[in-house]
Structure formats: structure tokens, C-alpha cells
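protien #1 (seq + structre)
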Amino acid sequence: MSSGRNPENNDKPDPFLSSEPVPANDFELPDLKQEAKYGVYLWWPQEGDDWIHPDDVETCKSMIPGNRVFRREEYDSVYSILLYADFYIRVKPTMWLEVESDLYEVNDQIEVRSQMGRYDPRIGVITEMRWERIRQKIIYEVRQGEQIIGYYDATQIQPAMRLDEHLDERRRRLLDKYRLM
């Protein structure tokens, strides 16, 4: 019969071996990473700026309100972290409009689909992600170097990659979503 003790640490009961209830504080749960959420702040979410981390107020005021699509990925006990390109903003939970992600991100290299000759197929980099209210979709600004080559939705672009490029989980899901793998 098992003692209900963890063989690696005799001080704490093993919740899987014990037949008695084990207090939650006596063992650690694995960190569960939440899926990233995407959304926009079309309006200033509340009076004042006490919902913004004090170090991020100026950056936040330059980016919100607007139609930029932010990625909310990490949390701590007080602030959520919003990411946009190379910027991050720490904010307390507030009202925003959550939008469905196409899995593309700012700085992703993409190819513009020719769509039967309608567009010139080109390789570029996503430099902006904006929410278009009327069509209810994300529009991507794409550049080649310093030149803007156009504004596209997810149906008009596809991931571009080198043959020797390593695929992380996000890129794998992106390629799978657009059936390019």
C-alpha cells in the first residue's frame, strides 16, 4: 500500500497516490499558458489613466484609441501585457473589442497572392495590423523596404518562408490554416 507521500519530496503528499484529500497549497500545478487574444481599443476604455502602468502612459496615449490590433498574451496579478510590433503596454483589464486573429503578426514576411493576375505577386513584411469595422476583418499594411506596396486582408496574402527556415508553433499553425504545409 502506498504511503501517499511523494517519493521525490517526503514532506509533501503526492495528490495522485493519496486516498485522502490533499490541500491545494501542498502541491504545485504546472503553469498553463493561455492562448493569445487579439483586440482593438476603438475608444478610451475608462476615465483617467490609472488603468495603464505608470511607465507606459505616454506610449499608450500615442496608440490608443485607434484601430491597431493588439495581442494580449501574458498576465501578472495586476496588469495584462499588450503587444504591437516592437511595443508593449501594460494595462489593467479593461473593455476592448476582441477580434478573431488570422495568425499573422507585425514583422511577418508574407507573399501577396496574384489572385489570377489581379495583383503582382510580391514578397513583403507586415508593418501594421488594423481593424476594419465595416468588413469586420484585419487589414495588413505590407512594405518592401521603405515602400508601402499595399493593404491586404488574410485572403490576399500567404506566409513566405525560406526552405531552410525553422517553424515555431505559431508559424506551423499559420501554414496549416492556409494549407501550405
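ok now protien #2
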Amino acid sequence: MGRKMHPNSLANLDPAKTFATDNEVARMAQKKSVEARHANKLKREALKQKAQEIKDLLKAVSGDEKLTALEVLKVRMMHAIDEQDWDTAADIATKIAPYEAPKLQAVEQTNKDVSASELTDDELDARLKALLEKKDK
């Protein structure tokens, strides 16, 4: 009995399928390479155009092309909204919010429960009149 060969053995490789020696395979690889280079070129051009749009937008908004971190975030948020990428827009808005609006201070609530039995008749009348005046305003 002969020894069985493992299915993952290098001896199982078919040289005709593995190595690009055929002209047709080389042409296909060349075509794929040209397509990839063309796609990369289109992406670079789109990126350059987007960068120019951002510069123009900032120039129109702030009068110069200098970018602050806050302006970059605002522009990125606007592009995310244009692309309807709501998760990114919401995330950026959350990061911008503390710099655009002041934080509200916490106000301690103190409620005093006063029953009518603890007040004199004069005090109760005064409080009722004050409440009625607030209602009329």
C-alpha cells in the first residue's frame, strides 16, 4: 500500500492553474491592474475636488482658508448630512455641541411640603391670594 498524500500538500498544486505562464492569464492580470489604477486615479481626483470644495466653503464662511478643529468638524458634519450618513453626523454634532452652547448648571430643587393644618388662617389666605395672582398673570 502506498502512502496517502495530504489534501493540503504542495504536491497537489496544479502548475497550470497556479503560475501565470499563459499569455491569457497575463493579459487578464494586466487588465485588472489597469482597472485598479484607473479607479485609484478617480478616487484621488474626487478627493482633490472635495478638498477644494472645503477650502471654498471655509473661505466663504470665515474669510480665510485656515482651518480650526471646530470648522473641520462642522464641514465634515455637513458632508455627512449631505451623504445621509446620520450616525456620523450625530456623532460629530455631539462632539461640537459643548463648544457651541454653554453647559447648563444644575439647579437644586427644594420643595417644602406644608400642610394647611400647620398654617394660621392669615398665612393660608396670603398663600392662596399669591397663587391666584400668579394664575391671573
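Residues 23-62 form the longest helix (40 residues).
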